[in-house]
Amino acid sequence: MLFRDVIGQDDIKARLIRSVDEGRVAHAQLFYGIEGVGCLPMALAYAQYLSCEHRTGGDSCGQCASCRQYAKLSHPDLHLVFPIVNKKSSGDDGSICNDFLPLFRDAVLSNPYLSFEDWQEALGDDKKPVIYTREGDEIIRKLNLKSFESPYKVMIIWCADRMHEACANKVLKILEEPQGQTLFILISDSVEDIIPTIRSRVQQVFFPPIEHRYLSEYLQRFGIEEGTADFFIRNSRGSISELFLQMSQSDTRQQYFRMFTQLMRTCWNLNEETFSEQWKPLLNEFIALGRTGQLSFLQNSQRLLRDNFVYNLSADSLVYLSSDELDFARKFARFVSENNVEDLMDEFALAESHIDRNTKDQYVFLDLMLSLHRLLRA
Fold this sequence. Notes:
The protein is an alpha/beta fold. Helices cover 54% and strands 7% of the residues. It has a 5-stranded parallel sheet with strand order 2-3-4-1-5, with helices on both faces. Helix 7 links the parallel strand 3 and strand 4. Helix 12 packs across helix 14, helix 12 crosses helix 17 and helix 16 runs antiparallel to helix 17. The longest helix is centred in the C-terminal third of the chain and has 23 residues. The chain is elongated and about 80 Å long.
């Protein structure tokens, strides 16, 4: 990974490059920020730069033997630790990261901005991946080895907040007694879940959300029109992972928006004479979504309500709506005011809670429609 391949974060790049060039590399560092802001690709670029034989222009050369190995994440002095699931029987010692290393390498090489959810999907297991206690012994074993080719041994612990406490304590002992020419990089999007004693012994580097202009330049590669790109970027909150998610869910989000507009119009126009004709087709569409789709729809509806309320306050800079959603908001937002917005949000949140608890969906959505009719007409 080269520094130029990391999106944005120029100040951090410059600081890390300067630390290597001046020989002032802190032995233990914690890269943290929300998921998708570049902590992992930056750590890899930093490690590669540290080991590069012919650094040039503030970046790795990309051509030397070390860089070629880093391009495959196969450098013998690069050690990777990450959450896994135990796939061995209780009679064995249990799984370690090396058992999943080929899979993790492929996942990161395919997407350096790998999210925890993406990795869990790649593992193909419903269990939550963690960094087990036994990994602490593996870390100690690897760091006791002499470096093979590079002056530095580099240990990158991705999702360090998911270390078992016993493993974290073993890592703490290493940090308290640092070995020469060893670089520890811990990565986390939930830094408060890392034990305080570790946080106090590392140099913390905060990664802010990626700036709009860098995300805009990135999306230009995909040929996405400016208005659509701006919508994706505003909803990404400066995260590449969230940007990917927004793009992948574009069609589904459009479906949920259509259903939301239909729901609002139906609830506004409900009357006793045509009640059954109005709600049955929409109710059947909600049921067809299935539990996961229903939860996603209700969550998206809460976002739309929030943005319509903010639009009604003329706080345009805080509105995250697509062009179609904005056209609808120009007509609908006036019905979402300080008098009913909390109650409207509560009704959707209550429906979400009921669906999550496997309450009969047709009763949940029928009750939601009746409540929305009352609140919109109040």
